[in-house]
Amino acid sequence: MTEAIFAVDLGATWLRSALVDPARRLAMKAVAATPDRAADACAIIDAAWRRAGCPRAVALASAPELTADAMVRRWPNRRAYEGGSLLSTTIRDAAVVAMVDDAAAAAIAAHPFERRDAGPTICISIGSGIGGGAVIDGVPLTGANGAAMDLGHMPVPSATGLRCSCGRVGCLQAAASGFALRDLVAASPDALLQSPDVASALQRASAALGEAIVIVNAVFDPARIAIAGGLGLSPLFDQIEAELIARHITVSIARHRCGDDAGLVGAAIGFGLNRTAPGRVGHDNQERVVSHAD
């Protein structure tokens, strides 16, 4: 990066934005509850971009699957967004835009690109939904259709019988996401971890996440596994660690080094990766690193 990048991180719960400078310092950071409609999210992003001085470089990390012009193609956790655009015509016409899946952005932020011998980085983002990202040999893993590391929809034994928002049964997200836990214990988002009914649901969630981590570890033999997302950074992290220890599984996990800013930092770094090896899709000003939906 040689210029400040306007970064956006859209998840099912929070919409964050900031200017990220070449040293990965954040300025003009803004956080808002994710609105119910894509049009409202678009307006919030546009207003923040204007306050930041209309930067030409825009990096968008998003939970939903997007088209090349930043329209929401699929978002099982927020169906009302589907068909709506996240970026105003002004931004799309004036800026160079790079788009990346939010969990993939978190994986990019967790990877030590300065090290040649860094080894694979895996990130599991646990929030309202669950996503995954990987950086292998310094390159974000995308897959043939941009859907690599869609961990939230990976079947795990502890989610057996639970229906996911995608329509399938047994997905990791059906047992261990914020939406799933709220459904299981009927608690509000703010009261979720304090609910007296949450213990058994959290036990099931940590078991499901432990199963997913074991699979990912066996497939990738990663040098590091970072845990991100609101739930991932919460006390649930300690329960996941305890679950791995109880199962005598020697897998090391760590809270993401960028905390809640992982998506913003990763989106900005991803923009720089696109400038080095661009993969243009659709609109002349827009590029995609990787995208899949939670």
From TrEMBL:
Put simply, this protein is called ROK family protein
* Family statement drawn from the similarity comment of this UniProt entry: Belongs to the ROK (NagC/XylR) family.
Extract the SUPFAM superfamilies matched here.
Answer: Actin-like ATPase domain
Q: In terms of domain of life, where is this protein from?
A: Bacteria
